[in-house]
Amino acid sequence: MKTSVKTITHYETIRPPKRSALQRLAVVARDAGEEQLAQLFDRRAFAEDESLAKASIRETTRDTLNSLYVNLGDRCLLDQIRQFVRAARQGAAIRHPVIVRGHAETLDRDSQLSIWEKHLMRKRLRAGISAVVALETFAREYGEDMGATEDDALTYIRSFWG
After folding, report:
1. I want to staple 129 with a disulfide (CB 3.0 to 4.6 A). Which of 11, 48, 73, 124 is the partner?
2. Contact predicate 82/117, CB 8 Å
3. Angle (CA) 10 12 13, round 5°
4. Tens of pLDDT, residues 34-70
């Protein structure tokens, strides 16, 4: 492998070999007639490739979303959150890991929906919509989405912000 003993020692004790070293180790193992060991090195190299690909996808997704937000601004994000909340209120799945103040928590559906409703209100305020208009819009949408009366919507808003 043309690798120092110190590097091999690090592989065995401190830091596992990276993809290229794993591929070289697979070749050495095959040359020595150790097919099972070669397959183990191949699987590890493949797993590292897969892990890097997943990380790349996450970075690409984050970069894409950031670019859309920078170009289209709060209004676009506001529309997306509104569509999501409407669908969730009507029973659509809420698929996301919930992070609340830096701690991963398991929350029931109503609590998760409440978090998204608060995101919606904050985004409206950030987009420059007055608090009165934002609350009136929220009440109207809640009534439409849930088939609720205006009184029910107002009661919900009081509990929502209470």
Report:
1. 124
2. no
3. 65
4. 988 888 888 888 887 777 767 777 777 778 777 877 7
Q: What would the pLDDT profile of 127-157 be if each residue is shown by its tens digit? A: 889 988 988 899 899 999 999 988 888 888 8
Q: Which residue has the tokens 């009165």?
A: 132
Kindly state the tokens that stand for 55.
């990380």
Closest by CA to 85, choosing from 34, 58, 60, 120, is 120
| CA R_g for the chain | 26
H-assigned helices in 18-161: 19-31, 35-89, 109-126, 131-146, 150-161
Bin 129: left if φ > 0, else alpha if -120 < ψ < 50, else beta. beta
The reported pTM is 0.55
Using CA atoms, how far apart are residues 129 and 160, in angstroms rounded to an integer?
19
